[in-house]
Design goal:
Blueprint lengths: L17 E3 L2 E5 L5 E3 L4 E4 L6 H6 L9 H16 L3 E4 L9 H4 L2 H11 L3 E5 L14 E3 L2 E3 L2 E3 L12 E3 L4 E7 L2 E10 L3 E3 L10 E2 L3 H6 L5 E6 L2 E6 L3 E2 L4
Parallel strand pairs: 4-5, 5-6, 6-7, 9-10, 10-13, 11-14
Antiparallel strand pairs: 1-2, 2-3, 3-4, 8-9, 11-12, 11-17, 12-13, 12-15, 15-16
Length: about 240
């Protein structure tokens, strides 16, 4: 585990409870989801080594995204002591990601995956997680009333679904003005997690892509420094306003 976390790292906050298919889930301030009854921690779209992938193609992005993502993930694991971690796909930005990791980061990753039952759900970026990362890989996981997958399924098969892929963000008007932030998106039948990776963008939940996933509307749980906060459809703004 990372031995020295910076004092500025925010404390894990579990202030908001959401229900999906009757199961209680708790969003964290950093974009993970906690299922306390089965001590399961869920994260999505880690995109390890995205920065080095683009750097190799001439786009000089900062090379610290993997370290930052691992640091936040280690903080959660240290705080919650999960018995199971489910990573909802696109955990590695490409098939060579583990080979480009620094030795220190690779050791840290293997240390994390060795703490519990670690499950890599396969995504469109990582059809097969690289060998040597630890954990086990599945296309889909069923766990007591919930189904974990990377991409959302058809709306009529969504009951109890926990997924990622879409990188949801919300733009809302607050006391300090309009703010755009990562968010969870849910209609009580399914929930889409925000991207957890440090170098990942986001898609506004008012984008047409979300209408296909939530045809009857959604609630956004927006991420703040101390926790997640509910924002109904009426408070959400498109990026153009």
């Amino acid at each position: 585990m990372l031995s020295s976390l910076p004092p500025s790292e925010p404390v894990v906050s579990l202030r908001l409870r959401m229900e999906v298919a009757g199961v209680s889930l708790w969003p964290t301030a950093c974009g993970a989801l906690w299922r306390p009854d089965l001590r399961t921690l869920i994260v999505s779209d880690l995109h390890f080594e995205k920065g080095s992938f683009y750097a190799a193609r001439g786009e000089m992005l900062p090379p610290y995204d993997t370290r930052a993502t691992l640091r936040r993930l280690a903080r959660l694991v240290q705080f919650l002591h999960p018995e199971c971690v489910v990573a909802l796909g696109d955990s590695f930005h490409d098939g060579e990601a583990l080979l480009r990791m620094t030795e220190e980061d690779a050791v840290e990753l293997r240390s994390l995956t060795g703490t519990c039952d670690w499950i890599w759900i396969l995504g469109n970026h990582d059809r097969a997680p690289p060998s040597g990362a630890g954990g086990r890989a599945l296309e889909v996981l069923g766990q007591d009333g919930l189904t974990f997958r990377h991409e959302p399924s058809a709306a009529d098969r969504a009951y109890g679904e926990v997924c990622g892929h879409l990188h949801p963000c919300a733009r809302v008007a607050g006391r300090a003005g309009k703010v755009r932030t990562r968010c969870f998106a849910s209609d009580g039948r399914r929930i889409v997690l925000p991207a957890y990776g440090a170098l990942t963008g986001g898609l506004n939940v008012l984008d047409p892509a979300f209408r296909a996933v939530f045809p009857k509307g959604l609630v956004a749980a927006t991420l703040g420094r101390t926790g997640a906060y509910l924002a109904p459809m009426s408070q959400l703004l498109p990026d153009s306003r």
